[in-house]
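User: My instructor asked us to take a sequence, write out its structure as C-alpha cells, and then describe one feature of it. I'm not sure where to start. Here is the sequence I was given:
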Amino acid sequence: MKTSGKRKQAGINFVMGTAVLLLAVWGAPTASPARAEAEPAGQPAAAAAPVLKRVIVLRVYFDDYANASRYTQAQVQAFFDDNLNTLWQNTSYGHIGISAQVTDLFEMPENRSAYIDDGDGWTDVNGNGSYQAAVDNSDGDGDGVEGTPCDVTSGGDLSCGDKYDNVLLDAVAASPDTLNWDDIDAVMVVMAETSNAQFHRGQANTCNLPMGPDGDEKLVGCAIFSENPTETDLQVWGRWAHEVGHAFQQGGPAHPSNYRNSFELMDALYPGQTGVFEKQSHTGFPGWLPSSKYQTFTSSCDVGPAPCVGLGGGAAFIWAQEYDPTGKPNVQAVKAYITDNLYYLISVRRRVLGDELVPIPDEGVLIERVVEDAPQWVTVQGKGGDRNKLWKAGDSFNSVDDGITIAIRNKVDDDNYGVYVTYDRNASLQPDVMLNPWVSPPGESYETTDIWIDSPVNGYGVFRYGMWDDGTGNQVPRGNGDDPAVGLVNRLYARVRNVGGAPASNVVVNFEITDPPGLGIAGSNGFTPMGTVDKIKFPALANIDPGQFVDVYYEWTPDFAVSPQDMAAGKFKFHTCVRVILDAVADETVLGNQDGDREQENIGYFETPPAAGAPAFNAIIHLRNDDAANPKFFQLYYQSDLPAGWAVNVNNGDLGVDLAPNQVVDIPVKIIPGGGQAVGGIYGVDIAAASWLTLVSDLDPKDTHLEFDTLGGVLVETRIVQRTKVTCTAKLQTKGMVKVDGLLSNFAKYYDPANPLRVLAVGVDAAGKLMPGVTSLLNVDSKTGSFSGALADRASKAKQVVCLFAGTVKLGSAASGYVKIK
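Assistant: Let's start with the prediction itself. The C-alpha cells for your sequence are:
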C-alpha cells in the first residue's frame, strides 16, 4: 500500500530535562514555494507584536546565608526585560517575547545543605581570584563526594534527588503574595550567591508546581540557578536564556546535538540564536521559519515531501538564518534528504542579531547531519572535522557513506552563499524501515499510530475506538483500536513502513511486552519477548518498496484469571505496554525509529458514566530503573486535560522516586471524576518519568550540561460512555452444541446503524478459563437488543458460558458473568 506524502513527526514532545512543555500553539507555517535568489543584505522587517511568555523569577537566599546577593532585583529584571526578551524576539523573528515578574530577595526555610550537594567545588589555583574546577575525588564521577547520586563530570554543585524539588517547592511556598500566577509558562529560582568558591551548574526540567502558595498544580518549565560570581554577566543571563528556551520547545530533542553545537542556543551557544533544525515544522519552534524557506533536494521521489522537488540535487542561494524571514523571499535553509529520517541541513550563519554576543565561533556555511530519533539527532559537519569551523566559498563537503556532496560555489556577500548539492545514487538510495514513534500526531501521547489491538470480542477488523489518519493520509485504528481481551486470541498489529529510497527485503518484526505485564515505564531491561513474525507468515515482508507499508500481527492471548466478580462487572480487559523492534535490513544505516525505544503503545482506558458522582478510578503503573548496576532518582511529571472539577493524584503526591538497580515499584494513579460530562467525551492524563543525564562536550570534557532524560510514559484515558448491560443463558442442545440466548440493554440512544452491535459468546472450562476455540460472534437486534446463536464445543469441555460486549466510543463494555450451561 502506497503512503501519501511524508509522515509528520511529533507536534508536541514531552521531552524532559532541561526541556519543558509549552502549553501554547504557534501559528502554522506557510506552504508557498520559495525562490532561490541573491539579493543585497537587508534588515529584518518589522514584526507584529510578539506573544509574551510569562515567567516567574523567584530570588531566594538560604536560611544560613546573609540577606545579600550578587544582583539586585532591578538588575535581574533588566536581564529579562532587555537581554532575554531581545534575544528571543530576534531568534523567533518577533513571534514571542519574555514577560517576567522578578521578586525581591526572600528567605528560604532551610539551610543551604538542604538544597545543594557540594561537588568538587572551585579552587583559586593561583591565589589571584582565578577560580577553576577542583580535581575530582577517587570515585571518578566528578562530583567530589563519594556516593552522591548526581553523576557529574566537572566541578560545580548540584541539587540531587529531592533537593531539586525542595528548592522549587519551598521557593513557591515562601513567595510573596504580590505575584500574579495566571497563565505562567515557567518558574525559575535564582539562588543568591556572593562567594567565588561556590558554583552551581543549574538544573531544569518539566515539573508540576503549585501556582503560588496553596495554588493548583500546573505543568510548567522549572529551573534553578545560582548567581555564580565566577561567571560574567553575559554567561549568567545566557545560561538563563538557554533554560528558558526549554519552556518554549514544542517538539524534538531538548538538546539537538547533545550539547555539541556552538551554533545552537538549545545546545552550547550561551547566548545566541537557535538554528534551522529547531525551526522546522515538527521540532522545537514550528512556524518561526516557514517551510517555504527550506529548499529541498532528494535522490528519489520516494523520499521527502510530496510533490517531489529537487530530484537529484541542484543549486540554492541561501540567506543568513539570523534575519527575519519576512524581510525577503530568499531561501534560508536547504534540506537534502537521504531518507525521510536522515537528511542534511545547510544554512548560513552571521554574527548579528544575537549571534554576535558570545559570539558564534565562525561565519559561513553550516552543515548539519540529522538522524531523527537517534541518540544524537544533529551532528555538525565542520570543516576539517572541527565542528567550530564553517565552510567557505570553494570548499566542498562529501559523505561517501550517505552518497552526498555539498559544494560551496560562491559567496555573494556576507549574508548570502551559493551551494550545489549532488547525489551518488548508488550510495544514497538505501532502505529505512520504521514505525511512527509515540508522541507523534495525531495522538501526541504515549502511543504510536502504528501499534494496535484487534480483539475478537467485536470481531476481527472492527475497532471499538474507530479510525483516524496516521499522518500520511492512510487510516489506522485510533489508540489501542480495541481493548485486549483476557483469555482470548487478540491480534497485536504493527504497521511496518519503508521511508527510504530503496526496497527493504526480508523484514523481521519482534513484539515485546513489559515485565511485569501491565501499564509500565521501563527501559530496554523492562521488556520480555512475545514473538516474532517474518516473510513466512506475512509474505509481504519479503520486500517492502519505498513509500509503502505492510500491516502484520502477532496472535497474543493474555493469560490471566478473571474472577467471577470482575467478569460480572465487565472487567475482562487487560492493558499493558507493548513495543515493536524491527531487525536492521540489508544496506540500512538509519535505525532510530525501529529500536523499540519510542515504538511503543502504552495506554490504558477506563469508562466513566455521564452523570456526576462517578466512582474514582485507580490504576497502577510499574516504574523500573533501567540501570541494572546503579541506583537512580526519577522525577514523575504529568499533564492532564481532565474537565474542571476532576482531580488526579499521582503517587500520593510524591513525584520524586529513588530506585535501586533494576528495581520495580508500583506508582498508584487515582482519577476522581467531578461533575457530569457529555457521552462521547475523551479525557486523559499523560504520566512520564525521567532521570538526570549528563551531556559532555566533545571539545572539553569539563564542559557539561544536565538534562532530564525521559525514560518513558503512560497515557491513562477516560471515556464518557453510556452504561450497558448484558445477560444471557446457555443450554446444551446436542452433544457439542450449546444454544446461547441473551439481551443487550440500555444502548438505543447511542446506537449507530453504520456500526452494528455484536456480542461474543465464549465457552469457559472447568478451571474457569475462557476457551479461545469455543466462541461465537452473535449479532444484536438493533430494536430489541436480543441475540441468539449456537456455540460449537466439539470436545464438550465447556462448563459455563460468558457473553461479552466490547462497547463503542459512546457505549460502555459489559459482560454477563459466568453462566452455567444447563
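For the description part of your assignment, you could build on this observation: The longest helix spans residues 73-91. Try explaining in your own words what that tells you about the chain.
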